[in-house]
């Protein structure tokens, strides 16, 4: 890793982000992203609280949902606070170690979320297609093991992808054309041959993204077959409504992730990377709790009860 100035070891990168925007545009972006970040943290925090404390939500679906919100909180916190700081200060320098750590967390949490979404689809399949055996198949112990598996593979995968990204020397430009350390962009800065690392990350993305997607597709294919086999149209609608929220979240997450890590590098560029990076780093974590809340009566009721208890506690303290 060679510094362009004096041949010493590179110790920092520069996140370009929105540096080229005008001061008024950066101020507007700061206000917008701060509002979105605050909303995402508040909504996900509320879902974590009610799914872990409300006894009426004591089912595997809400157990997984609580962990999905926790992953979203972790995911959004690895990138957005740094971006907000860079929107108001001129110093966009991040150390080599900070960049490596941020990329590891993004990879680890992102992969864990991919796997957890697949387990949530399997949970819906068991609940709809095998309702009599649901409690036995999706026991608390099994749910804990599934969540632990998602975290384990996510964190292990993060080590592999970090190594593939930073294994080569860096002696080109140290400007990262994004608001966080994203692997394909960092690899392009390597002075060695980046093709091997890019191919390995592409192959890893195929396994990490498509394997869970196969489980999701199979689960929903069997759910669809079960729904179509039912005589009651009202029963079909009620059953499908329990899956619509999860499917919407899957589409949001997988679309942005597949564009970022499964497209040829030649089709990328700052104007294309940033919108999709924003989609899966802030828009998706913000939309997940909103999607689940608005489409689920039990979630709405739990939120009302939680907010009601908070208001009552505040009134009593006064």
Automatic annotation (TrEMBL):
G-protein coupled receptors family 1 profile domain: residues covered: 43-292
Any one of the GO CC terms: plasma membrane
Principal subcellular localisation of the protein: membrane
Annotated GO MF terms: G protein-coupled receptor activity; olfactory receptor activity
Keyword entries, A-Z: Cell membrane, G-protein coupled receptor, Membrane, Olfaction, Receptor, Sensory transduction, Transducer, Transmembrane, Transmembrane helix
Keyword check for Transmembrane helix: yes
Its biological purpose: Putative odorant or sperm cell receptor.
Subcellular location as annotated: Cell membrane
Record field: transmembrane: 27-50, 62-84, 104-122, 142-160, 200-223, 244-263, 275-294
Membrane recorded as keyword: yes
InterPro entries recorded: GPCR_Rhodpsn (IPR000276), GPCR_Rhodpsn_7TM (IPR017452), Olfact_rcpt (IPR000725)
Annotated CDD domains: 7tmA_OR2-like
Domain of life of the source: Eukaryota
UniProt membrane topology term: Multi-pass membrane protein
Protein name, per record: Olfactory receptor
Family: Belongs to the G-protein coupled receptor 1 family.
